[in-house]
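PROTOCOL LOG
Step 1. Enter all chains and additional molecules of the complex.
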Amino acid sequence: MTATLLRGRTLTFLRWPETKDDLAACRYEEDGGLLVRDGLIADAGTFEAVKSRAGEGVQLVDHRPNLIVPGFIDCHVHMPQMQVIASYGAELLDWLNTYTFPEETKFRNAQHGRRIARLFLDEMIRQGTTTVAAYCSVHKASAEAFFAEAHSRDMLVVAGKVMMDRNAPEGVRDTPQSSYDDSKALIAEWHGRGRQHYAITPRFAITSTPEQMEMAQALMREHPDLHMQTHLSENHAEIAFTQELYPWSKDYTDIYDHYGLLGPRALFGHCIHLSEREADRLSESGSVAVFCPTSNLFLGSGLFDYQRYRGRDKALRIATATDVGGGTSYSMLRTMDEAYKVIALNGEKLNPLASFWQLTRGNAEALSMSHRIGTLEPGTEADLTVLTSRATPGMRLRMETVETLAEELFLIQTLGDDRAVVETYVAGRPAKRGLED
Ligand code: GUN
Ligand code: ZN
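Step 2. Run joint prediction.
Step 3. Record the structure below.
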């Protein structure tokens, strides 16, 4: 396969940037080069150095003056909720019952699942998102459709069918045994096939009986290398109902703990109203709290205290995510803009370098995948996003006064969306241009 040499302003992160001036946390090349071969980043550095090492016969793609960054990672999103996004007027439990569960029943129909899976991944690419941790519906066919679509695009995804056997309409319920059997079959068929990864996905404690939670526990024991994703401590009414259903539990986190679902590959969506004890348990177990700012604001769920969770003695691992369709944007740029505002309401500021760290390397670390994605390190997989800070007249005008890289990143985050994404490379191949509108 011929190699491609990308030229542009390259930016990747080495560690968490303490301040907006902490350039030692990143590697930024004003005239950078990335050699891409067989889906991997084969070489990186200054354009001249990479070019001289690359030899003859490479295809050059010049992205100057645009920025080339690692592809964005969305750590919690619901594929079957593309026709739920923008549903008016409800908090979490009503929103689930009124809009979400009825919509997800449509995924009984495998053809519907295939159509939405295709449109969903098109939308991710359009937004510069190259990896998602996704929830499918309860139906095995929805996960099959999702993996088949991701596999055909060679996208690295983490996904699973939700397990849910109570407190939901019949059309979106499984049983403890069928959820185990279907998850098992999906794992056998898809986990480790190409870039596909399975996540055991009990939706949340409210929609699983204790018997089903035991099935999730059995799956985790049998497949300790798998991710597990669920929801935790999103909304006060949800927390109260959960306590009623599991009266023996110390708190919400204790339920998942009891069933052995905490750990370094466990992704807990929301985690807004955690007690200190719960935060300690998540930290001790290496579990990940997933911050979904647009969803938390839209559903009126609350303000995730990012800086406190990061800064506490027992720090939490944190990821960020859209949580579409509770979330209101597919864009991780819009998501980080709203994250900035939520953090501001908690009296802190998230510096722009830290934002872009979170979007890329930070979210890759949260998935325990930074050796494969989330950076521009040679040997890693060539999922890339090319950004322009001049996507709109307003951005162009504001750019006239921008002087530093941090200011430019903050502008892209604050005003940017899919229009700021010039191209998205998936496993080294350009994937955005050519998508239908
Ligand atoms: N809790 C259980 N299911 C869901 C869901 O689909 N979205 C959100 N935001 N919270 C949930
Ligand atoms: Zn969710």
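Step 4. Note key features.
The pocket of zinc ion (ligand 2) is lined by residues 76, 78, 231, 269, 323, 326 (CB under 6 Å).
The mean pLDDT is 98.
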